[in-house]
Amino acid sequence: MLIVKHLGVQDFSDVWQQMRDFTDTRTPDTPDELWLLEHPAVFTLGQAGKPEHILAAGDIPVIKTDRGGQVTYHGLGQLVGYCLLDIKRLNIGVRELVETIEDMLVEVLAEYHIDAWANREAHGVYVDQKKIASLGLRIRKGCSYHGFSLNINMDLEPYQRINPCGYAGLEMTQVQELCSIPPSITEISIKIHSALALRFKTH
Known about the structure:
The chain is globular. It has four helices and ten strands; from the N terminus they run βαβββββααββββα. The protein has a single domain (about 1-200), classed as 2-Layer Sandwich (BirA Bifunctional Protein, domain 2). The protein has helices at about 10-25, 85-90, 95-110, 185-200, and strands spanning about 1-10, 30-40, 40-45, 60-65, 70-75, 80-85, 115-120, 125, 130-140, 145-150. The strands form two sheets. A seven-stranded mixed beta sheet has the order 1-2-6-10-9-8-7, with helices on both faces. The protein has a three-stranded mixed beta sheet with strand order 4-3-5, with no helix packed on it. The chain is α+β, with helices and mostly antiparallel strands.
């Protein structure tokens, strides 16, 4: 069973603490959860993230986190999905989890006639050579938290202040630039909600 929560706009630090609390206190019987939300502008640095990939943060706060990956940006108009899953109970490995999320995003984007692809080497989802979705997870006690972000209708300028995901010159894109009639975050949230619930029901 997957419980899906649509949380609106939430402060990153608050939600990060809530994810850790949820993971630390869950039991083998705790249902898995997917949290869908947006964050106000923030740069987050992964566990092994190198500060030199932040070129000029300016007025945007930088938070060092415990997820995998390098530096990324969250802002309004980007859908963030936090995957609070007991992967031991689901009987899937970390790589399979990452690839399942990537494939789900590719399929949801295809519904809007966006020809996206999953990069299995530099994880994430791309359209041509531009990145549209990023992933970064943490596994603790056989359970995952953190998750993915999908650019939908946001200001992409802050990405120019960093080397996104540690790659200098990596260009970012978003749904609104690739659709004649861009969907709302709510609409895409519902599609992702359904797609992930279906996938994790089958394990």
